[in-house]
Design goal:
Blueprint: E1 6-12, H1 19-27, E2 34-40, H2 47-53, E3 60-63, H3 69-79, E4 84-87, E5 93-94, H4 98-108, E6 114-122, E7 128-131, H5 138-143, E8 153-156, H6 157-162, H7 174-183, E9 191-202, H8 208-211, H9 213-227, H10 233-255, E10 267-268
Parallel strand pairs: 1-2, 1-4, 2-3, 6-9
Antiparallel strand pairs: 4-8, 5-9, 6-7, 6-8, 7-10
């Protein structure tokens, strides 16, 4: 059986309030072949003190100015020696046993190059939302809805290198760009969606999801335009709604629900 090793990268900048939970969630996974890399962009809060607290368990870390999050992630992976890659932002965290679940899938599916699961969302009010996903469909991901949750996604080193890593021209949506180009040509044996909740994404007043909505929308639109062969905006809008309908159909068929609005997902205290 092929030997697998995880390389997990955390990019961070001034996330002293949340990074310890992230670090602990990675280091407590209990898998033997794991290297953890933290690339800090020059924090001036308590982030470095927390990293130093755990540094004997961290494969590599540094703190210096970089060219943004995706530059930091690429730097981290360039230091890694594993063959299963993932990155986890410093305000998100893995659930216990997530990496063991991922490892078992890569071991049982030797052709697998990309895997993603479901995830939860921590809301500012203390509630937690379950976010079930659907199986991969390139046209849906391009035109309407990205079903891959970044913190619950894992891919082979080979796939990462074949696609040149993350495009550093993007500040917020480089993962979307990478997922589109990396998964476009994968067949059913090479990409797998599992129903396990692997991670939790945190929404708080300082998170990019809250503070940079206009930038997110601009970059998403640019990436979709760069990858589409349809230039007429009216036709593109028609295609978008067609694939939104297909998204809802897949949700009903695969997950037994139609998530018409955010609050339709299961909610937990």
């Amino acid at each position: 059986m092929k030997d697998y090793k995880f390389t997990i990268v955390t990019p961070t900048l001034n996330q002293g309030e949340t990074i310890e939970r992230t670090i602990v969630s990675v280091l407590s996974q209990g898998v033997k072949n794991l290297e953890y890399i933290i690339i800090d962009g020059g924090s001036n809060d308590k982030t470095l003190d927390i990293i130093k607290k755990y540094e004997k368990h961290i494969h590599y870390w540094h703190s210096k100015k970089d060219n943004g999050m995706y530059d930091a992630i690429n730097t981290g992976f360039s230091r890694g020696t594993g063959n299963i890659f993932s990155y986890l932002n410093s305000d998100d965290y893995y659930f216990p046993g997530s990496l063991s679940t991922v490892l078992s899938k890569f071991q049982n599916y030797p052709s697998l190059k990309f895997l993603y699961g479901d995830y939860m969302v921590d809301l500012p009010n203390g509630n937690q939302l379950a976010k079930p996903k659907i199986s991969w469909d390139y046209q849906i991901a391009l035109n309407a809805y990205l079903m891959i949750p970044q913190p619950s996604s894992f891919w082979s080193r080979e796939l990462f290198e074949e696609n040149g890593g993350f495009n550093t021209q993007y500040e917020d949506c480089g993962d979307y760009d990478f997922f589109l180009k990396a998964c476009k040509k994968l067949n059913g044996e090479e990409i797998l969606h599992i129903y396990n909740y692997l991670s939790c994404f945190t929404i708080h007043p300082q998170s990019k999801t809250v503070t940079r909505q206009s930038k997110f929308k601009y970059e998403m639109k640019k990436i979709r335009k760069n990858n589409s062969m349809i230039f007429n905006p009216i036709i593109r809008r028609f295609i978008k709604y067609f694939y939104l309908f297909k998204t809802l159909y897949k949700y009903k068929r695969e997950r037994g629900l139609i998530p018409l609005k955010y609050s339709d997902y299961a909610s937990y205290k």
